[in-house]
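Lecture notes, structural biology module. Today: joint structure prediction for complexes of two components.
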Amino acid sequence: MAYISQIAFLLVLAVAGYLLSKRIGRIKKNIQLGKDIDRSDQKGERTKNMLLVAFGQKKMFKKVIPAFFHFLIYAGFLIINLEVLEFIIDGIAGTHRIFAPVLGDFYTVAINIFEFLAVAVLLACVVFLIRRNILGIKRFTTLAGWPKLDGNLILVIEIILMFAILTMNATDMLLQGNDPHYTQTGDFFFSSFLTPLFEGMSVSALHFVERFAWWFHIIGILGFALYVTYSKHLHIFMAFPNTYFARLVPKGQMKNMDEVTTEVKAMLGVGDAGSSEPPAEIARFGAKDANDLFWTDLMGAYACTECGRCTEQCPANITGKKLSPRKIMMDTRDRIEEIGLNLQAGKPSEDGKSLLGDYITAEEVNACTSCNACVEACPININPLDIILQMRRYMAMEESSSPQSWNSMFQNVETNFAPWKFPPTDRFNWADKVNN
Amino acid sequence: MSDKTYKVPTMQEMSAKGESPEVLFWVGCAGSFDDRYKAVTIAFTKILNEVGINFAVLGPEESCTGDPARRGGNEFLFQMQAMSNIQVLDGYNVKKIVTACPHCFNTLKNEYPELGGNYDVVHHSTFLQGLINDGKVTLKDGGEFKGKKITFHDSCYLGRANGVYEAPRDVIKALDAELVEMKRCKTKGLCCGAGGAQMFKDAEPGNKEINIERTEEALDTGAEVIAAGCPFCMTMMGDGVKNKEKEGSVKVLDLAELIAKNQGL
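The predicted structure, tokenised, for the full assembly:
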């Protein structure tokens, strides 16, 4: 009989582990559908960026109020999860609060710290629900459907999980005098406010509530972990690799297309055109679909938490154009998920759809001023501009579907060596005016 | 005021004489062809002459860096331009380049190295700041900008793209002017609307032109001068000021023009 709960716990753990690892494998495969790009250099600089930007939340603090509440949830998540270790050991071994006798008074201090953080997380989640739904902040009010629900669900789930911890501790304290299985731990400050709710209950009822809260919390955490992989909330993990592998070159620098360089060199007869190797098969110039992008772009799409700071700063979006850098990232994620699902189902890789066209329109891509405001604004160094520019390359080089004025500009550069239609012989005429 | 004859030596002339300049002034297409920006090219040329900088231009041998083609997606055209420019620059053994265009600056500095062109490239704001710091340009006390409110509009390709925020501001402060900041400035500066090849096409449908949004913000500071360091920003802000019918009271000037005016050039 005593083993039943242990077996049940192991089963829960195994199912959660299986589902989670399968899902993580799927995401990894999806990201690897992207084109290769080498980001194995400058490990020191990359580690520093990850520590400052992801771990240290440096860019979040450009907006102090949300940064403060976000930090509470972040710190709470990191620290409260230490307790999950005890949950797992207790669950497997059939023990109860196995660390309490080992740590003694320190255990009481630790649990009190966890409770303090639980209350802080709870408050922060309430503040965020108010910000999202009541204050009319544009970057939230512009979300609808699943992304809006997703944002609220995460906050509600976190609030419920925090209540589960406090309920569990409150009933535990009441049981400590009545059931020898419940180790004496000393008082927990915050959950003692909840004890009046349970004081009239019988020992068996208390026992039921305490166990229910315990199971609810651990299953809740495991379920939440799985949910997160389908949600924008995945940033809690992806922020780390995304900041590590982010670009380190100046923001203004566009990535050189080496496959084009080879051809241009051959055309001009310069440089190392002597390497007589036939040019590697070039799949496509620029990006039409999500898997034409680099893996770093796809990782960025999974890291995006849809906060909308990018779109809030985008000059095109501010002035009513359709372009929204946040939508670029959300569309990229939706499309690579779709491609991944097709592959999983053994469907042909071509489903007649593509990121450019079915998700993102030319109008959006053409509206970008490449000002880098979105890149600067992203708290975890996602680069929507990189995706936009790769789509422009596809439109210009594969489809010749750039706006007519751009085609004229290209022609001017080609024939007059200036984007305007002035004869190159007039280029130096300005010098005649220097002395009068 | 100065009766001096300003010289504009070309690389070709210098090379024929077996000389090489300290720095190449990359004028850019806007600086060569755009009527408004030609005045900036001339102002900067006068400063270089006054200070006695050993400089040269490419003159008719200069060609578009390829920036608008690359931003528009035409990588082939960009690389063709870049490689033929690199051939010209390397042919003259150019080491140091100064330019008054942040787009040329960004492309020459960041994007030419991958195609084999390695130069020490500075934007003219940094160059002017250097001249002031080294005492080569001493700004006149009580010049025409003393105490006047000047706001600086950050060019995206100078600011966010390359992290140059302070050099242009130092130049303005050296004029004894009152530097006033717009609500969105430096890393949060709002684009004028012309970057990323937008200069060469109409904007997509929306409810406002970006340059109007930015001009309104600049006018809100109460500045008499909107200072810029980019030919595209200059056009966009100039158009914005005209649209708001403020061209009588608010001027859009480049940093080189501010200094040239102070020096009476």
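Point to remember: The two ends of chain B are 6 Å apart (CA to CA).
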